[in-house]
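Input sequence (295 aa), recorded before submission:
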Amino acid sequence: MKARSASSNFLGIEDSSLSSYESSKFVIQSAPYEHTSSYLSGSDKGPEAIIEASHYVEFYDEELDQETFRLGGIATLDPMDFSGMVNKEAVDFIEAETSKLLADDKFVISLGAEHTVTFGFVKAHLKKYPNLSVLQIDAHSDLREAYQDNPYSHASVMARVNELKIPIAQAGIRAQCIEEAELIKSSPNIKTAYAHQVRRNPNWMNELIDHLSDEVYITIDADGFDPSIMPAVGTAEPNGLFWEETMQLLQLCAKQKNIVGFDIVECAPMEGSILSEFTLAKVLYRLLGYITKNQ
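Predicted structure, token format:
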């Protein structure tokens, strides 16, 4: 695997000993797959926008008192090529590419376009970590059996994950159909902290973390955040999560569980604004910091 140079890698890291594939523990892969976006499109531009915005993120993290990239190195790979691939074929390709990185004993961070890509990431991680569970930050539960007759829609990704029979904990949900709500009520496998409950239940974070197994994969849909701090998403919903409560959740998860991988998806860049992609670059770096600090 060949990593990108400083001009195009995450954070703009110039020291090759901290950004080459061979010497880095952490690897960032991009999956700019967009096929089923149902409102605003453009999420295929999200991964590259986040990487570009990261060049303006400070190396030093004042909360953690460390330069996180020095604690293992971060390699950034060229984006996957989805030419001629959609639905199951695209998901299988993502799973295979992710599995290669895991076989090299890398910690894989994935930047996706539409949320469908997460199914491939989770399947690859489940093969290596059979005790896997998933923490999902999202505005939508994504538990529809199919959307617009496509079981590989972004609106069905967690339904596919749920078929893997692994625990799912959801934070920030505030848009779903009644069938999804009924599935959550009836399934002991799914624990959901709805957005309207987050500020009314002081124990919501502990309840979600307690539902997870020891090995956790995290998927962060950009629209899980409130549109006031994350406007560049395909389907924005009011009353989302804010920075501090989201960081507290991620930090708690890192302290109590073994986070084995994570992704960030569904950023659809807006012309004339860098708020969303810059914030997501900070989310990536801060979460990586929590992982290195606690694990």
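Checked by second reader. Strands lie at 26-31, 60-61, 66-67, 74-76, 107-112, 132-137, 168-173, 190-194, 215-221, 258-265.
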